[in-house]
Amino acid sequence: MADIITTNAQGVLNVSNNPIIPFIEGDGTGVDIWPAAQLVMDTAAKKNGKTIAWKEVLAGEKAFKETGSWLPDETVETFRTHLIGIKGPLTTPIGGGMRSLNVALRQILDLYVCLRPVRWFQGVPSPVRHPEWVDMVIFRENTEDVYVGMEVEANTPEAEKLRSYLHDTFGWDIRESAGIGIKPISKFGCERLLRAAFKYTLDHDRKSVTLVHKGNVQKYTEGYFMKLGYQLVRDEYSDNFIGWDDCGGDPGDKILVKDAIADIALQQVLLRPKEYDVIATTNLNGDYMSDALAAQVGGIGIAPGANINYTTGHGIFEATHGTAPKYAGQDKVNPGSVLLSGVLMFEHLGWQDAADDIIRAMEATIADKIVTYDFARLMDGATEVKCSEFGAAIAERL
């Protein structure tokens, strides 16, 4: 009998060998990539004595067509009660104040960590000379920064009222006809993200943490994030970590915590990727950095993503790319992003053996040059296969 995943007071998951896991197929190419990824996940689970009772829930275009809502309350409640879920790409309708469905789920369920590991698979085409040097894990704060959507539209009474208030109260001269946004960065939001990054670093035997920020300009938001990181190291993590300024760059037997200005970091992950390991950063910086790093290892077509609340145990694992509607139903695109997000989900469930099996099988498939069109066009001697055939080839190697 299938069971709902539960959690204890410390946020530790209680997972049976037959859990119920909600999924959203996804818009556009979701109809192709989800079945391919599901096949592999089911095969890996079965190999390790487990089964998954999949429960479909609706969001995006499919939800709107069937229910009249882009994000039905029932879907949110199912994710809330079942704790863990996985999803394909979702469309965000353009215009009219409709926020991203992905952002909405993160904020409603308080999924404060966006976890984006970035690594290269042998044989995957890359625009850089040494993609094998890229092995980083990004901890992106998921609930604050400009993503909260606290904005007023230009040329509206609300914008004029806020512009006048800021002038009268702070002496800030903001041009007329300006849209204005608010960028909150809180101690609470930063510290829980940073604690998650530090714990991950310890648990996975990583070598350093880099705080990426734009504090040279945004001193009281981005700079605050950096200062809180170093202070947290001194106050709570000094047994295992040490800040750059406290060790002169030589951490000894401790894990080094350093910082980098965001624009410099984006350059250095290209030129000196070996110097970066775990990256902790604010929401917008993390958005840019995640996709920039993914480009070095094959693109967001195989970039996994997880949105996690380590306190409550909630997690939604997701394809990080768009819906690519022009390819929908063609059985063409790479299912790697949602599949590798499934690997992250298995790791979160404690199913490490099944997760490792998928990685090995995917590596073997790519090494045999059996790939979808995005890789085949860049690989000499590759065999181009359909999305479903790529999934089947991975499952076969399990």
Q: Please report which band the strand proportion falls in: under 5%, 5-15%, 15-25%, 25-35%, 35-45% or over 45%.
A: 15-25%
Helix percentage: 40-55%
Globally, the shape reads globular
Average pLDDT level: 94
Query: Number of helical runs?
Result: 14
Tags for this entry?
single chain; 398 residues; alpha/beta; 12-stranded mixed sheet; two-stranded antiparallel sheet; 41% helix; 18% strand
Description:
This protein has 398 residues and is α/β, with parallel strands linked by helices. It is 41% helix and 18% strand. The protein has 14 helices and 18 strands. Strands 1, 4, 5, 6, 7, 8, 11, 12, 13, 14, 15 and 16 form a twelve-stranded mixed beta sheet that branches. Helix 1 (30-47) links the parallel strand 4 and strand 5 (53-56). Helix 1 crosses helix 12 (352-367). The longest helix has 18 residues, at 30-47. The two termini are 25 Å apart.
Task: Describe the structure concisely.
The protein has 398 residues and is α/β, with parallel strands linked by helices. The protein has helices at residues 30-47, 61-67, 73-82, 101-108, 157-170, 187-203, 222-236, 244-247, 262-271, 283-296, 336-349, 352-367, 373-376, 387-397; strands spanning 3-4, 6-7, 13-14, 19-24, 53-56, 84-87, 113-119, 135-141, 151-152, 180-181, 208-213, 241-243, 255-261, 278-281, 304-308, 315-319, 370-371, 383-384.
How are the secondary structure elements laid out?
Blueprint: E1 3-4, E2 6-7, E3 13-14, E4 19-24, H1 30-47, E5 53-56, H2 61-67, H3 73-82, E6 84-87, H4 101-108, E7 113-119, E8 135-141, E9 151-152, H5 157-170, E10 180-181, H6 187-203, E11 208-213, H7 222-236, E12 241-243, H8 244-247, E13 255-261, H9 262-271, E14 278-281, H10 283-296, E15 304-308, E16 315-319, H11 336-349, H12 352-367, E17 370-371, H13 373-376, E18 383-384, H14 387-397
Parallel strand pairs: 1-4, 4-5, 4-6, 6-16, 8-14, 11-13, 11-14, 12-13, 17-18
Antiparallel strand pairs: 2-3, 7-8, 7-15, 9-10, 15-16
Helix pairs in contact: 1-11, 1-12, 1-14, 6-7, 9-10, 11-12, 12-14
